[in-house]
Amino acid sequence: MKCYSCGNPAVIYRKYEGRAWCKKHFSRQLESKIKATIKKDKLVEKGDKICVALSGGKDSCLTLYLMDKFFGKRPDINVFALSIDEGIKGYRDESIKKARKLCKKLNIPFHLYSFKEEFGKTMDEILKNKEARACTYCGVFRRYILNKKSRELGATRLATGHNLDDEIQSIFINNLKGDTNRLMRLGAKPVAVKKDFVNRIKPLRYIPEKETTLYAMLNGIEFHDSRCPNAEDSVRFDVRKFLNDMEEKYPGTKHIIICHFDTILPALRKYFADKGSVGVCPKCGEPTSRALCKVCELLENL
Amino acid sequence: MGRQKVNFMQVKVKIQEKIEKVEFNGETTEDLLKKMNINTESVLIKRNGKFVPVEDKIKNMDEIEVINIVSSG
Description:
A: 2 domains, 12 helices, globular, B: mainly beta
């Protein structure tokens, strides 16, 4: 197949678009799409301090790489990275090496925090004598550190590497669970419900996972590509498979889902605006919509 | 009634560090993936060391690398 733009050999054919692209034009297109998302949703503005949540995986590495490419030379915008060591031996130590290496290569400040320092236990220790679901603890603790530490580091934006597949999987899962509150929090720039929450942005939100991976590989971005050993074959796993099957059979499905969601999101947020007020956890002082925040509740169970 | 053209091919497939020879009936990597029961959305393909669209035609004895897309977390 030949590139739609220049006729050189193509590296990808986008069925949902009906066009094939070479390395140069695919990369250029992907960057333009992400820039357009940033501009349209005002993900980054003058004076912003962007903290990139960097796991060392393909999507977070790509997010950091592009934030640096787009804003690295801007004197009014700061970019830095924050990684979390959950303490999963043989997995996270490897991905942190990649994260650190990328920051060094791009000359970006790198901040590392750990579950051990914050909560007194590594993820491996938490799972030792618990029948706990690993992802519940890990996800809640990780989000807590990301918000708290990025805020303390002065971030005005917390950029995550969520791609199109991640986002539509979450839309489906929240629908399957009937979780309206979580559903409303999705979006390219989820609403910061209280001043203590750092505004999250998802620059890769409209880019399929297949394309984030291809871009990273074509452009020499080194990343860690193992699956977490604690990852369960959960609902997300089944939803991912279902959506990939649908996309293969009906190209464009993934984009239709996100565009439709974006269409109804403002109405959802407006309708449910008064629900779920946010207060402060009496124990740790972090923002929460519960009597005791989820982190403190889980810590009590340890 | 025209007879349907049968296009048998043998290619070397590298998947998760293992290399195997696969015989299949078809013209493209997409046909090969279908035979191997792999969803085209969940992988990237290299043909003879270069990234190619799954819809590209392949030749007998081509080396196909199937790269799984890993969801990180």
